[in-house]
């Protein structure tokens, strides 16, 4: 069965460039926001908050079942209890880079230790 573009899963990447002293607090704040999105919005698949070794970057990775689900959640992230723009100001982000991607293939290790690749058509 071929999956249409509308039905492909959707990934949002947000990279923050910050001063090293801001990294732990930003990681904590993004983790809280991500947990809220996961609990409140349908279509959540997975997420991670990653910190660079040099302390100058934080990467937020969110994967959704569809573009619509991701965009709906992100709209709330922009205007929620702690809005996204306030988060940027509080943690003094020098730059914030947004990326949106449709998943075309993925590979994962299963519980039986096998590798499984899925191509989305």
From TrEMBL:
Q: Which residues form the ABM domain?
A: 10-76
Keywords, alphabetical: Monooxygenase, Oxidoreductase
* Tagged with keyword Cell membrane: no
Recorded hits in InterPro entries, A to Z, give: ABM_dom (IPR007138), Dimeric_a/b-barrel (IPR011008)
User: Which domain of life, per UniProt?
Assistant: Bacteria
GO terms for MF: monooxygenase activity
Q: What is this protein called?
A: Antibiotic biosynthesis monooxygenase
Name its species.
Answer: Pseudomonas kribbensis
- What lineage is this protein's organism placed in? Bacteria, Pseudomonadati, Pseudomonadota, Gammaproteobacteria, Pseudomonadales
